Amino acid sequence: MIGVLEIGDCVIFALDGARGIVMEIKLPLCHVIWEDFFVSWEDESTLRKDERLTVQQRLFP
Prior knowledge:
- This protein is mainly beta and 61 residues long.
- Helix content is 11%, strand content 43%.
- The protein has a 5-stranded antiparallel beta sheet with strand order 4-3-2-1-5.
């Protein structure tokens, strides 16, 4: 499922359940800032989009 994430999406790391926000994408890697403010590049296949949080944090005019 490569290419389904967008910048600003809230994601959950599949291995430990950590939550973060996608800051940059260079397929197949995503630059993520995690809830503890740690930043890392992760393979997109290890990330799952959190639809509920993504919708809540979006700004709609």
